């Protein structure tokens, strides 16, 4: 039976979004484990691989500074703090999977999953933005080509 990782990514996005919102709102009672457990429990019967969700959330947060530093030059017209919170967290999930889960998540799957999250939860233009940024990340960081070479 498939583990339904797409739903797992949705739960991870919801958890990261809530955690970031509450942290930035100076909510001193925010507890990542509680938020994660509550969000997973909502889909208890539908998510087979709960460890996938937990690891994704914790790993994205663990690598958040690295991910943000990597993302910023790929969207130079948009400082990360000005990108919508949903889009920012979708980008982090997608980039994390591109850079750190390449052996288990093919790059095209990581990008497609991020685009689908953006379509479902972002604004009208989010999916195009996410696709562009993660496409650049794939070409420059995974394939090792520059955008100049990729377009000529």
List keywords for this structure.
8 helices; mainly alpha; 69% helix; 152 residues; globular; disordered C terminus
Write up this protein.
This protein has helices spanning 5-24, 32-42, 50-62, 64-71, 85-100, 107-121, 126-142, 147-151. It is built from 8 helices and no strands. The protein is globular, with a radius of gyration of 15 Å. The termini are far apart. The longest helix is centred in the N-terminal third of the chain and has 20 residues, at 5-24. Helix 1 (5-24) packs antiparallel against helix 2 (32-42), helix 1 (5-24) packs across helix 3 and helix 1 packs across helix 5 (85-100).
Question: How far is the first residue's CA from the last residue's CA?
Answer: 43 Å
Basic shape: globular
N-to-C SSE string, H for helix and E for strand: HHHHHHHH
**Quaternary class:** single chain
User: Portion of residues in helices?
Assistant: 55-70%
Which structural class do the helices and strands define? Answer: mainly alpha
In this structure, how is the largest beta sheet organized? none
Count of β-strands: 0
The fraction of residues in strands falls at under 5%
Q: Give the count of helical stretches.
A: 8
* Mean pLDDT across all amino acids: 92
Determine Rg (CA atoms, Å): 15 Å
Q: What are the low-pLDDT stretches, counting only 5+ consecutive residues below 50?
A: 148-152
């Amino acid at each position: 039976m498939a583990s339904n990782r797409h739903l797992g990514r949705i739960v991870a996005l919801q958890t990261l979004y809530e955690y970031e919102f509450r942290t930035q709102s100076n909510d001193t009672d925010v507890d990542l484990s509680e938020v994660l457990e509550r969000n997973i429990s909502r889909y208890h019967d539908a998510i087979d691989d709960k460890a996938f969700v937990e690891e994704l959330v914790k790993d994205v947060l663990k690598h958040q500074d690295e991910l943000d530093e990597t993302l910023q030059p790929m969207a130079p017209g948009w400082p990360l703090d000005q990108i919508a919170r949903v889009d920012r967290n979708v980008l982090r999930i997608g980039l994390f999977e591109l850079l750190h889960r390449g052996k288990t998540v093919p790059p095209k799957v990581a990008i497609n999953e991020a685009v689908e999250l953006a379509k479902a939860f972002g604004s009208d233009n989010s999916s195009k933005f996410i696709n562009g940024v993660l496409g650049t990340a794939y070409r420059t960081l995974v394939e090792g080509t520059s955008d100049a070479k990729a377009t000529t």
